[in-house]
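Lines hold sequence, tokenised fold; shown next:
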Amino acid sequence: MLPWFENDRFPLYLAPMAGVTDVIFRHLCKEQGADVMMTEFVSAEGILQRDDRTRHYVDFDDAQRPLGVQLFGSDGVRMGEAARKIIDWKQPDFIDINFGCPVNKVVSKNGGSSLLKDCPLLASVAREVAKAVPIPVTAKMRIGWDSSLVNAIEVARILEDCGMQAIAVHGRTRAQGYTGLADWDVIGQVADAVKIPVIGNGDISSGVDVEIRRAQTNVKGVMIGRAAMANPWVFKEAKHYLATGTHAPHASVEERFNFMRRHCKLAIERNAHMGELPTIRSMRNRLMNYTKSIPGGKWLRQRFSQIGSVMELEDIFAAYLVHQAEHGHDQATHAEESAVESSTEL
């Protein structure tokens, strides 16, 4: 068994998200209590053909361990070669195979969730990668291609037979994308059907959610994705709830700004070759996400949509405090604003 499941541990995974879970964001989420990390997914062919462009996707520091590098592709032998190349570079704790990505540019190349329609090819990919590397191999999948092909149990058994040591199951079909609700009944059925650990993924945004899914299914861990984009403190809050049965206070406005400031400064340091303005521009969506569910979030997002420097961040925070003092939202307004924000989550 993978060591992070031993002694009845119930690990919290940070889901791999393209363009989001880079080395800096993973580091920050680790500090907040995330137990297991994965890199953004990376093309096996990209590793083999243009490693100068793709190598940065597999970068990490030891503080982020246990960490896996996630690969996608449809040629198991080539993926095994790419995995060995990655191990020579960075020695991750495990390799993860992406059988879940719904994005057209991945599916059109017969990668990601497209393999759910071709179980023999899926088996070949899993088997060849597991055979090629000396470290554990895991997989991430969706419950099926669409409502007419929900084959998660069949796929999970195949993956177990092919040497996968854990499976993360996102409770949506490829056709759903990120709409609708995750089907935790199917996730639970998968957890009952295989002997290897199953990690449940989908609609986890609080410690209560984690506790409910742990109590209602045999999953051995949960994976948190989009909720962490707006609330990276969710890992700390979840662990507090699991340990005490009580809700931890939500991150204060000051904590959020300190987090934003640190994220921006780390990004500028890492991307020194780009310069501050392009780096902060690339941070705009992230900063706007961090304002979800706090009073005056709309006011902040308007300003973050044009931010260009850390100094501006400081000025915006100072202006925000004045704005809230002069136009503070009452509880009813805040509740209404939070409801709107919740309905428009990414």
Summary: The chain has two domains: 3-244, 253-343. The radius of gyration is 21 Å. The mean pLDDT is 92. The chain has 16 helices and nine strands.
